[in-house]
Design a protein that fits this description.
The chain is of the alpha/beta class. The chain has 2 domains: 225 residues, 3-Layer(aba) Sandwich (Rossmann fold), CATH 3.40.50.2000; 164 residues, Rossmann fold, CATH 3.40.50.2000. The chain contains 14 helices and 15 strands. α3 links the parallel β5 and β6. α2 crosses α3, α3 crosses α5 and α10 packs across α13. The radius of gyration is 21 Å and the shape is globular. It starts with a strand and ends with a strand.
């Protein structure tokens, strides 16, 4: 019996990209991990992404059973993802040409533009493959929180509503997303919740701790440096947390931080609050170095305005570190309030300070929560479980059998 041919389409989030820049974060990690673990389950996996450099080879072997194909659509240079919409017709035509010769058995699209491109590409095929779609973020949510600052293409919300009608199945990453999708017209019997995961061989409590502690307490934020991630709320909490340092990882390399507008904004805030000596921006941190950084923290803080899922809190918990997170989106699923961390309202520095202060003042509580967090993540949130549940969706969709009506922790029919 031949392997199931799976194509993951991720137009802007390459699994090979360096993390931390404005458009490189959780989706890149998600696609890379899902591809590798699906291959480990016997699938033949291709990831299609846009070529964003002139010297990229057409195809790259990423891992056993996983190939990354670079599709030329628009200029072969980095572009903000909100500028890619004009090039999606070319991206779709390239998919159609490839699939005309050898269509995949299943297409799993990631982000709204990938979904549109794949659905357009399969239209002319005599035996079109089923399309599973994961939004990763919704335009209606982004617009709600960012208002006029939202730079998404005007067509985004319309296309996302159409995707809900035309995709064969939707894999949502959290239960909060299902509520949003239902409000947009999504059908519960065509929606399954499969959360994100962690690699337990990399993220675990035992291992090196870096950088060395200088005394006092330490908070760590690992995030893309964009306003919606709420890093300014963590800085604004520091005056109420004397003797506490904050390390912020993400963004451009350390040598280029001075030119980053968000870093300049956050540094100015720290100076205004007289905590600039307690805030250090590390810049982009290599993926293998993230576990040691997380383990160095007393508390990891993740307080975005909104969050489709949030992988960093899971990785911190896997390292045995409690998390203070905003009570939004996927964090409502991943952080067990008062067991593995504390949930606070978004955009509330006073609530952040109170929650962090409670943990810093109680070392035994931190240890207990850290142990609970590590156990919970190992049992419920690994990429192997994610891949197995996703493959279950593929197989049942491909054979046109009904998805299960009974909810489980990992393949939850909405």
């Amino acid at each position: 019996m031949r392997s199931l041919r799976v194509e993951l389409v991720s137009e802007h989030a390459s699994p090979l990209a360096a993390l931390g820049h404005a458009d490189a974060g959780g989706q890149n990690v998600h696609v890379a991990a899902l591809a590798s673990h699906l291959a480990g389950l016997g699938c033949d996996v291709t990831v299609s992404t846009r070529a964003d450099a002139p010297d990229l080879p057409p195809s790259v072997h990423m891992a056993p059973g996983v190939r990354v194909d670079h599709i030329v659509a628009g200029p072969t240079t980095p572009l903000p993802k909100d500028e890619l919409w004009d090039h999606m017709a070319a991206f779709s035509r390239a998919l159609r040409r490839r699939w005309a010769d050898r269509p995949p058995d299943i297409v799993h699209t990631h982000f709204w533009m990938s979904g549109w491109a794949a659905l357009q590409a399969r239209r002319a095929l005599p035996d079109p493959p089923p399309v599973v779609h994961t939004f990763h973020a919704l335009g209606v949510v982004k617009r709600r929180h960012q208002g006029v600052a939202d730079t998404s293409p005007a067509d985004r919300c319309r296309v996302e509503a159409q995707l809900l009608r035309d995709a064969d199945h939707v894999v949502a990453t959290c239960t909060d997303e299902v509520t949003e999708l239902t409000a947009l017209g999504g059908e519960p019997d065509r929606t399954t919740v499969v959360p994100c995961g962690i690699d337990p061989t990399a993220f675990h409590p035992d291992g090196p701790i870096a950088p060395p502690r200088r005394g006092g307490h330490r908070l760590v934020v690992v995030s893309r440096l964009v306003p919606r991630k709420g890093i300014d709320d963590v800085i604004a909490a520091l005056p109420a947390l004397p003797g506490t340092e904050l390390l912020v990882a993400g963004g451009p390399p350390a040598g280029a931080l001075g030119s980053d507008p968000e870093v300049r904004r956050l540094r100015a805030l720290a100076r205004d609050l007289h905590v600039h000596d307690h805030v250090e921006f590390l810049g982009a941190v290599a993926r293998p170095d993230v576990p040691a950084l997380l383990r160095s923290a007393d508390v990891v803080v993740s307080v975005p305005w909104y969050e489709p899922f949030g992988i960093v809190p899971l990785e911190a918990m896997a390292c045995g570190v409690p998390v203070v997170g905003s009570a939004v989106g996927g964090l409502l699923d991943s952080i067990a309030h008062r067991s593995t961390g504390l949930l606070v309202p978004a955009r509330d520095p006073d609530a952040v300070a109170a929650a962090v202060g409670r943990l810093l003042d109680n070392p035994s509580l931190r240890v207990h929560m850290g142990a609970e967090a590590a156990a919970r993540v190992r049992q419920e949130f690994t990429w192997d479980l994610v891949a197995r549940s996703t493959l279950e969706v593929y197989e049942k969709l491909r054979t046109r059998r009904s998805l299960p009506s009974s909810a489980t922790s990992w393949a939850v029919t909405a």
